[in-house]
Amino acid sequence: MDENKNKLREESIDFAIAVSDVCDDVSGCNVYVNQLLRSSSSIGANIHEAKYAQSRADFIHKLEIALKESSETDYWLELIYRKNKINTETYKMLKNNCGIIRRKLIASITTAKNNQNSNNTCQ
């Protein structure tokens, strides 16, 4: 499981770098680009923070924040795409990578919650 968490962390860093590289080439829409940069980099920051969570509930909370940030990132990507600031190929690639991270976060959150519930039952 630790290997999967590290892989997700690395994927989130790679994603933030890819978004940053694309944003470097976007002219105009500075407010939208700034929001996209913030939300995309926040995904990995929260995954990284989860590694040092103080409790299982804190761990879940950090991953849930990362999940929300991935949803926000998806929104800003679509907005910038619909303003014709990035091409279709770039948009689809970033949207797909964001979706992969989001699905992995959902799976991790579900697993953590199930493990938390299993540990709380009497035997």
Describe the overall structure.
With 123 residues, the chain is mainly alpha-helical. The protein has one domain (2-110): de novo design (two linked rop proteins) (Up-down Bundle). The chain is 84% helix and 0% strand. It contains four helices and no strands. Helix 2 packs antiparallel against helix 3 and helix 3 runs antiparallel to helix 4. The mean pLDDT is 93.
Question: How do the strands and helices of this protein lay out in sequence?
Answer:
Layout lengths: L1 H23 L5 H21 L5 H27 L5 H32 L4
Helix pairs in contact: 1-2, 1-4, 2-3, 3-4
Fourth-tier CATH superfamily name: 23S rRNA-intervening sequence
Strand content: under 5%
Order of secondary-structure elements: HHHH
What is the typical, i.e. mean, pLDDT?
A: 93
Query: Which regions are unreliable across 5 or more consecutive residues at pLDDT < 50?
Result: none
Please provide the count of β strands: 0
Number of helices: 4
Helix content: over 70%
CATH architecture: Up-down Bundle
CATH topology: de novo design (two linked rop proteins)
Shape designation? elongated
> Distance N terminus to C terminus?
25 Å
The CATH class assignment is: Mainly Alpha
Can you summarize the main beta sheet? none
